[in-house]
Amino acid sequence: MDLGLLIILGGSAALSLGGGWVCISRWSRIRHLQDTPTSRIRSAAQGYVELVGILRPLGDVPLIAPLSGELCLWWRYRIEEYRSNGKRSSWSVVERGVSEGWLRLADATGECLIDPRGAEVRPAFRRVWSGSLRHPRGMPLRGLRGLLGIGRRYRYCEERLHADEPLYAIGDFRTTGGGRQGLDLATARKQVISEWKGEYAGLLQRFDSNGDGQLDEAEWRRVRLAAGLEAEERHRHASTGPAQHRLARPTERLPFVLSSHGEEVLARRYRWQALGGALMCLAGALLLSAKLA
Length: 293
Fold this sequence. Notes:
Distance between the termini: 13 Å
Strand order of the largest sheet: 1-6-7-12-11
Largest sheet: 5 strands, mixed, barrel
Number of helices: 6
Helix content: 25-40%
Number of domains: 2
Shape: extended
Number of strands: 13
Strand content: 25-35%
Structural class: alpha+beta
């Protein structure tokens, strides 16, 4: 079997497997979006939930998009440079970035903070334009550096979320305070003991009764008892505060999506992507079978 045939067979198999993965993953997303009912923030259950609300500013410090300089609540950008090498030319990414600041979502019942890290974000605002500077807000270079930059072409892409925009969000929902969360005493006690071990000299000063520089079994029992009481006190203190709701990336392999578009628009896009994946899988399988025949 020659090298060319091996390359074709490998490419066909990769196309088929990649297309199958895209099809299955997109249909799985559709199922999770459609099977998860929309919840109200105040009454949402702990765990995987779907929320719909309006974005509100968080804090007094405005967030500025790096390429356009416009005010927003979240941004993502990409800078590409047009490169030509003989007969081949293409756009190559030279810089990209995404904001990681938290978002504040509000509905008629309450507010929820959203950690966007790890989310698939699909904003309604997307702008693409071009220019001759590496950074569209930069000053033109002078002298030799400016002459060397003549003829360079850059393409900029910026996506943003803004205040007062609707947002669809699905992810892991957790509430602290407000007396809603239960106490896992064993876990909370371990956390307290771990903090105390960070200041081991202070731990010895409090619990080393015989002054031998170490904690025996009886002294460790006192440590665990005191840590349990400390954990319960912290829980009581946290429960008396107002409820704070947060949405973040699920620990399981579940979709974490933030979108300016509603569920139906997202489901429609995923259906088209699933169809494209199925066609890729079929094309790869047909090509592979034709070459092996």
